[in-house]
Amino acid sequence: MSNLEIGKRIRTLRTEKGLSREAFCGDEKELTVRQLGRIETGNNLPSLAKLDYIAEVLGVPMSQLIDEGLLIVPKEYLKLKTKLIRQSIHGDEEKIHQREDIFEDIQERFYDQLPEDEQVAVEVLQAIDDVYVSENAEFGEGLIEEYFNQTLLQTEYSVNDLLILYLYFLSNAISFKRNDDVLKKVRNNIVTIIDCSDNTYMHLLQRVLIAIVLYQLRNEYYEDISVIFNFLREIMMEIQDSNLKPTVDYFEAKYYLYGEKDKEKALQCYEKAISGAEFFNDINFKNRVIEERKEEFPEL
């Protein structure tokens, strides 16, 4: 069964129920009008979550809409996606090229057969890299415009929601844009996440939290930033993974230096970041932190 056939079937059942796309999607929390349009025209294969919603609204079993075997995501693709989520770049040219090769591999071997949510995940991961490497927020604008409002409606975040939040806060840190209401809403939702059973999800959550810290530091907005640092440490302890600790120590140094004006604590955090980067053999990050410490503490 092709994407077009699936889309036609969904459209036929929807029109038989007398529902417009707008009425079908309701508050667009689960499915937006644009997403439904792409599904019905065969441009996207709906994800399992969206199919579940569509079947519920139509009042039919999911098996009437699609062969569920089509929704099985290749394990090899998932391994590549996990590597993209978990790997830090820190300006390392070799890692940047490795990630470019992974994106190319996904595009050539898997992308066209992936459900829409996985295609979006790939696009957002690519945009995150582009924004980070180029320091140009324009690479994320289209995806943020398309998906961010839907993410804001959520109180529990999926992997894709976290990716969109990561892109949003990174992009707005780069462009020095600030929205306190959005920050507070997202932060209040995030710090209630307690299920640490999925290490990759929690690793991605850490990256979102780090992006929030970067966003607050660059916008010189220090309110409740300590809450984020504490939550990051809790996650690292819970999942027994301290790979991101040098990054957290580095940003905490910035916070103490500029937010608290406490040079002694800032210097301590710099030392921890340098030691941690050395422990994990992240030479590029270690050298970067050393250079920034020299700039901020020239007397040393």
TrEMBL record:
Molecular function GO labels: DNA binding; DNA-binding transcription factor activity
GO cellular component: cytosol
InterPro entries in the record: ComR_TPR, Cro/C1-type_HTH, Lambda_DNA-bd_dom_sf, TPR-like_helical_dom_sf, TransReg_Diox_bact_type
Keywords: DNA-binding
Residue stretches making up the HTH cro/C1-type domain: 10-65
Name of the protein in question: Helix-turn-helix domain-containing protein
Source organism of this protein record: Streptococcus mitis
